[in-house]
Amino acid sequence: MSKFISIAWRNLWRNKRRTLITAASVFFGVFFSVMMTSMQKGSFENMISNMAKFYSGYIQIQESNFKETPSVNNSFVLSKKLTKAINSNEDITSSTKRIETFALASNEEKSYPSFLLGIEPDKENLKSGLSKYIDEGSFIENGSNDILVGSILAKNLNVGVGDSLILLGQGYHGVSAVGIYKINGLLDFPLPDLSKQVIYMDLANCQEFSSLPSSITSNVIMVNNTGKITEVMSYLQTYIGDKEVIYSWQDLMPEILNLVEGKESSGAMVKFLLFMIIGFGVWSTIMMMMNERQRELGVMIAIGFQKGKLLFMMLVESAFIGIIGVISGIIVSYPIFYYLFKNPIVLTGEMAETYESMGFEAKLAFSVSPEIFYNPAITIMIIFMIVSLYQIYYVARLNVVKSLKS
Amino acid sequence: MNVIEIKSLTKIYNGGEVKVKAVNGIDINFKQGEFTAVVGPSGSGKTTFLNMLGGLDRPTSGEVIIGGVNVWGLSSRQLIDFRMNNIGFVFQSYNLIPVLTAGENVEFIMQLQGKPKKERDLRTKELLEAVGIGDRIKSRPSKLSGGQQQRVAVARALASKPEFILADEPTANLDSSSTTSLLELMSQMNKKFNTTFIFATHDQRVMDKARRIVTIEDGKILSDEYFDRE
Ligand SMILES: Nc1ncnc2c1ncn2[C@@H]1O[C@H](COP(=O)(O)OP(=O)(O)O)[C@@H](O)[C@H]1O
Ligand SMILES: [Mg+2]
What we know:
- The structure holds two protein chains of two kinds.
- Chain A is an alpha+beta fold.
- Helices cover 56% and strands 19% of the residues of chain A.
- Chain A folds into two domains: 199 residues, no CATH class; 178 residues, no CATH class.
- Chain A is built from 15 helices and twelve strands.
- In chain A, helix 1 packs across helix 12, helix 2 packs antiparallel against helix 14 and helix 10 runs parallel beside helix 14.
- Chain A starts with a helix and ends with a helix.
- In chain B, the strands form two sheets. Chain B has a six-stranded mixed β-sheet with strand order 6-7-8-3-9-10, with helices on both faces. In chain B, strands 2-1-4-5 form a four-stranded antiparallel β-sheet.
- In chain B, helix 3 crosses helix 4 and helix 3 packs parallel to helix 5.
- In chain B, 36% of the residues lie in helices and 30% in strands.
- The chains are: A alpha+beta, B alpha/beta.
- At the A-B interface, helix 1, helix 11 and helix 15 of A face helix 2 and helix 3 of B.
- The site of magnesium ion has 2 residues of chain B, from helix 1.
């Protein structure tokens, strides 16, 4: 057995150049596949975590009709029972109440539609570090009467810190909601879409604006690990009232999920082509390896090698190529992408603008999810398994007399 | 005692429209310790005959019985093991596994047979010394001359303690001095171990060493003569 492996190993280095080139092609396949996936997944994870942080949360509790008809009429009061359940769950890192509504924001000259969020400033800040994104002015305190405005919205309205905005919206049961609010700070989010439309005010202030009693439209929950989402959701399920519904971020932002899936499938297509090319390279190497040794294989069978042993030897030899390529690919790529995961590349200049115009944070984030590394390894394994079918066929068909004559 | 019994052995190749009777009904026996040359012009059927005799090429009809076993009645797996244990092969060239040293080439066949390490090492050394290249035991075949490679091949063929050794034109690629010494070696081994040798050749020098000469033409035995050599 070990003799067969030793022969396979020595055979591998009979044509050093070809072996190295083939192993290198596997290496680059793994490396580029990891690079592509790490970058893509990283940017999605970054976007999703940003969206979850600033907007949806990982889990939300809403009134059952709110998703369909996002109006303050579809609001609810967070029960004591539910609050207690939330507070006692260890996987929940934060829970904050919100009112989400729409308002027309205007000054004397211009009006823009805005996305008005009534928040608990201290909790919201704890959850998302919102105050870090204050570009000008300062954050609002709990109970403040002032507002925070997205920087792009403010620019569009041509207002700044200290100026006032008139907000016009629809209150509870069709009551018209109107108020004049002073701008306390401008927010520059890593998500340009938010900067374009968001206005924050204190929850109580917003309840007054919307003529809401003590109710809210949503309660936003963060968990310590995205893997815990379903578990926490089913935990909460037993505590909610019959007019309330629990959603995950995927339910709330289906368009992001679509985007992610769309990009992932186009990425998969590129990777498929990449691996097809590598697969053909591997196949032709192995084909050459077998064909040029036809006579030798014939001699071996003649003197007493069972075909099974011969095949085993050939398979071990080709597996060596795959193993060398895959292991070196992972050994080289893991530290690189781990570093980039810890130290994302912040983009500047035109690149940054391009990214922001597409709704992404101007940052190249990377992911080191384990599947990024083992998926290409599995793919390479499958390629070698397919190629091994050729080897099985070749050895099964090998005719001693013909081989000896070659 | 007959080591090999061959009964109306025939091989017909279907070469497109024409059928070639490469071997055409050969009946012959070989005894223990014989040193036989199968001679005949190129294309007369020597290789085909030896391959059927060696369990490599399936006859169209006829029987090959070695040590009482009907060789072509065995399954292909059994046949491979049968060859390993009963027949030693020396081909024209490139007999050896290139990535194994001379010693390993000889030893490996015994390893396949499941012989213990100690016995293998001893016999490898003994055989390589007997064929005159005991000092090249660690050399890869590519570092050996053609004549030396054939000597290792003879040692390997002997290693498995076979009933007989088949050699198809073993000297065809050798110069005349290597040819003479390889012949000398085979004849020595034949005497020393009483191993039966059957070799195909059309080299007069090789024939001169044989104690039995079987002449084949058009797949048939033309003559079968015994000679006394000193
Ligand atoms: N695979 C084959 N297909 C068709 N004809 C063959 C094949 N092998 C050998 N022959 C023919 O059989 C005859 C005997 O060949 P061979 O046994 O190689 O003769 P030798 O070894 O004496 O030169 C030749 O006519 C040769 O052309
Ligand atoms: Mg021949």
